[in-house]
TrEMBL record, chain A:
Cofactor(s) the protein requires to work: FAD
Name of the protein described by the UniProt record: Acyl-CoA dehydrogenase
GO molecular function, one term: flavin adenine dinucleotide binding
Record carries keyword Hydrolase: no
Keyword Membrane annotated: no
Domain of life the protein comes from: Bacteria
Keywords: FAD, Flavoprotein, Oxidoreductase
Gene3D superfamilies: Acyl-CoA dehydrogenase/oxidase, N-terminal domain, Butyryl-CoA Dehydrogenase, subunit A, domain 2, Butyryl-CoA Dehydrogenase, subunit A, domain 3
SUPFAM superfamilies xrefs: Acyl-CoA dehydrogenase C-terminal domain-like (SSF47203), Acyl-CoA dehydrogenase NM domain-like (SSF56645)
Source organism (scientific name): Frankia torreyi
Automatic annotation (TrEMBL), chain B:
Cellular compartments per GO CC: plasma membrane
Organism name: Frankia torreyi
GO molecular function: flavin adenine dinucleotide binding; oxidoreductase activity, acting on the CH-CH group of donors
Designated name of the protein: Acyl-CoA dehydrogenase
Residue ranges occupied by any Acyl-CoA dehydrogenase/oxidase N-terminal domain in the UniProt entry: 15-118
Length: 402, 394
């Protein structure tokens, strides 16, 4: 168990929170979020530029790869603040892609040089990126529906469909977990500019015969666009079957931690909304917040948020300290428990907040349903909370049996 | 806690660890069987620990403490837990001690603190009364000044360890109704007019008692702080005590959860998916407590108020403790029917006994409901409910 105490971290965290909260208050109120989310696959380009300029996109990546080197602990704080405002920007996906590329470099995989070349553009925010993976209730797998074939000239070609890819409408670079003749592998694909945005269109890109089709899906949570991506395109090999599992695990760890951090933000905001409303809404001649059925539910939402935040901070710190690839057993436990707790807390707080608001909380106009949608959809985005707990317990019990 | 941070002349980081480890190695012995032998063993350990200058890691030097920095206090508690050193046999001593350090007269400090640390003298807490539980400021035990004595009459209840205690720190009414008429007194348990009637608790044991006070004479020099300041004195020192007590709890819970997982791993329960969900929740719980304590520490070291982290920690801890024992009974399965005096009960019956005792976690020192009120009103800023008609709300 760690016990060192770091005063600088607390200070840096406070400053980052304040700066982001200020920016998001001005640039990302709920009306702006609704406007952006109304367009299929929409995302907030202007907010993304501002976040990029602040260095938020590359906050965790080391300076030699174009990042700020501030670590996941701070990036998680940023993601929490974005979650609070449901900011429709591809930070989670772009940070996840950076984690994948860093793992490729760390593993000295065949595409290490290509990964290193791609990283600065993503870290700077110029090239939003995302990962296309197979989804199960237990977490990510290679895409059985995307085949990779080695071409005569020595390169690779990907064909097939990734049914659900987060932030694909924003992405200019796609990391695809595909199936080769010898096992799963990770590839990088350029997404031609004409493909992106809200339109579903094929593009020509740089290479001849490249087609990347991005079709926005109708989704539970429109503030995080998801799309179907159909590929028939040249691709760069990043990690082969020998390194694939390590790279995917490291990537998933970061993705889950950031998703959890975002869920903490959702949970915190839902709690605040409920507390504010409970203080002003009067029934039977007094604020409903004076009734313990309401105030205790708010207290529980707050406690759940604090608990989740504590676990997320610990998981992010653990990832920072090990670089994401060492002692994966303990790391996986820390990440799985944090994600399970945070995903549950967000759903609990969103449902609780809606209940405290009563009828108004059930309306389209009230923001709480956007938070409920985000919370509930996050639960299903990477892995289910109960499966994450099972994964943690399985490691703990196995370790005790050794 | 904060006072310790401000002290400048402090030992070098980690300097105490060598002597502490030496002491622990020299005192390593398995706990004897039987309650009273175990108590004698724990008393002897803490007497030696005090004499060696290795007790009270967070107290200032001038009152016999080690004046360690907060990170060093963490390291200290970790070391003690690892060595399975006996906990101080009188936990309540560490509620009165910070009060004496902060508000006591020099005479009171000289008289009481060292015997308290050595576990020569035990303390009990005279706060709750039959008519003053959650609403503590409604207490009615009266102390009337008579020359250089107070004459105290009334009744205290749920007084833990009263039958073992040498002294009681008590809140008594010296003035107007409500929080502003309360004083903080130290009473000898051997005073004429003071009667202890043990209450059997849920486990069948006698861990607490009723204390009847019939014109008990208490010297005025045993008043702590000023007359009628008792309520605020008790409240500030409770906050102080909790912050540091969490440090040692953190390592104890870590050990208990690992023991629970080991217990499950050695039985079919370890393969039960429902039990495994609970094990994961308990593992998460102990990590939350640890992480929150650390964040509270960081905040304190940065000179800010740990506020939410510590008030939330209290509620989490209480409910975690209960849940932990509920899960444990599910893990031992059919053997959960056995009582703690049954020799064939798993692990000496600690889990069934612990389960019963854990029901007090959400009652003693403020019920879980009162904790939620506190979080709602003081942390979230929700409005307090209006007082019931005719009731005085503190």
């Amino acid at each position: 168990m760690r016990s060192e105490v770091n005063v600088d971290t607390a200070e840096a965290e406070g400053e980052l929170r304040d700066a982001l909260a200020r920016l998001l208050r001005e640039r990302c109120d709920i009306e702006q979020v609704r406007r952006v989310a109304a367009a299929p696959g929409g995302w907030d380009r202007q907010l993304w530029s501002e976040l990029s300029a602040m260095g938020v996109v590359g906050l965790a990546a080391p300076p030699e790869h174009g990042g700020e080197g501030a670590g996941l602990a701070l990036l998680a704080v940023a993601q929490e603040e974005l979650g609070r405002r449901l900011a429709p920007v591809p930070l989670l996906s772009s940070a996840t892609a950076q984690a994948a590329l860093l793992a490729v470099v760390a593993e000295s995989a065949p595409g290490a040089a290509a990964a290193a070349a791609l990283l600065p553009a993503i870290a700077s925010g110029r090239t939003p990126a995302t990962v296309a993976v197979g989804r199960t209730v237990d977490g990510w797998t290679p895409l059985a529906t995307v085949r990779a074939e080695e071409e005569a000239g020595g390169g690779w070609r990907l064909t097939g469909t990734a049914p659900v890819v987060a932030d694909a409408t924003a992405a200019r670079a796609l990391l695809v977990a595909a199936t080769t003749g010898t096992g799963p592998a990770l590839f990088a694909v350029d997404v031609p500019a004409s493909t992106g945005g809200e339109a579903a269109a094929g593009g020509e890109g740089g290479a001849a015969g490249a087609e990347v089709q991005v079709e926005p899906l109708d989704v539970l949570d429109a503030t995080r666009p998801l799309a179907r991506v159909t590929l028939d395109t040249p691709a760069t090999l990043l990690a082969g079957p020998a390194e694939f599992a390590e790279v995917l695990a490291a990537t998933r760890g970061v993705a889950l931690t950031l998703l959890a951090a975002e869920a903490v933000g959702v949970s915190a905001q839902c709690t605040d909304l409920a507390v504010d409303y409970a203080g002003i809404r009067h029934q039977f001649g007094r604020p409903i917040g004076t009734y313990q059925a309401i105030s205790h539910r708010c207290a529980d939402m707050f406690v759940g948020t604090e608990a989740a935040r504590a676990l997320v901070a610990a998981a992010a710190q653990a990832l920072d300290e090990t670089g994401g690839t060492a002692d994966t057993g303990e790391l996986d436990v820390a990440v799985a428990l944090a994600a399970a707790e945070a995903l549950d807390a967000a759903v609990g707080a969103a449902q609780g907040s809606l209940q405290v608001h009563g009828g108004i909380g059930f309306t389209w106009e009230h923001p709480v349903h956007h938070y409920l949608r985000r919370a509930k959809s996050s639960e299903a985005l990477i892995a289910a909370p109960d499966r994450l707990r099972e994964q943690a317990a399985s490691r703990l019990v196995a370790a005790a049996r050794r | 806690m904060v006072a310790a941070v401000e002290t400048v002349d402090r030992p070098r980081q980690g300097e105490f660890l060598g002597p502490l480890r030496e002491f622990l190695a020299a005192h390593a012995s398995p706990p004897p069987r039987g309650g009273s032998a175990r108590l004698t063993w724990a008393r002897a350990f803490h007497a030696d620990l005090t004499d060696a200058g290795l007790a009270a890691p967070g107290w200032p030097k001038e009152v016999g403490g080690m004046d360690l920095s907060l990170p060093d206090q963490l390291a200290y508690h970790r070391e003690m837990t690892r060595a399975r050193a006996p906990r101080h046999p009188c936990g309540l001593s560490f509620i009165v001690a910070p009060t004496l350090i902060r508000h006591g007269t020099p005479t009171q400090k000289d008289r009481f603190l060292r015997p308290l640390l050595r576990a020569d003298e035990f303390w009990c807490q005279g706060f709750s009364e039959p008519g003053a539980g959650s609403e503590l400021t409604a207490l009615s035990t009266r102390a009337v000044r008579d020359g250089d004595h107070y004459v105290v009459t009334g009744q205290k209840v749920w007084t833990s360890q009263a039958h073992l205690a040498d002294w009681m720190f008590a809140l008594v009414r010296t003035g107007e109704p409500g929080p502003k008429g309360i004083s903080y007194l130290l009473l000898s348990m051997t005073s004429p007019g003071l009667t202890v009637r043990p209450l059997r608790d849920i486990s069948g044991g006698t861990h607490f008692a009723e204390v009847f006070l019939d014109e008990v004479r208490v010297p005025v020099e045993n008043l702590v702080g000023r007359e009628n300041d008792g309520w605020s004195i008790a409240r500030t020192s409770l906050g102080h005590e909790r912050a540091t007590a969490f440090l040692s709890d953190e390592f104890r819970y870590r050990r208990v959860v690992s023991e629970l997982i080991a217990l499950a791993a050695g039985s079919p329960a370890g393969d039960d998916p429902v039990v495994r969900q609970d094990l994961a929740r308990m593992e998460a719980g102990v990590r939350i407590l640890a992480s929150n304590s650390r964040r509270a520490l960081e905040t304190v070291l940065a000179g800010r108020d740990p506020g939410p982290a510590s008030s939330v920690n209290r509620l989490m801890r209480a409910e975690f403790d209960q849940r932990l024992h509920e899960v444990a009974l599910r893990v031992i399965g059919p053997d959960a029917v056995l009582g703690n005096r049954e020799p064939t009960a798993p692990e000496g019956g600690r889990w069934t006994y612990g389960y019963l005792m854990s029901r007090s976690s959400t009652i003693g020192a403020g019920t879980a409901e009162i904790q939620r009120n506190t979080i709602a009103e003081r942390v979230l800023g929700l409005p307090a409910p209006p007082p019931a008609p005719g009731a005085g709300r503190g």
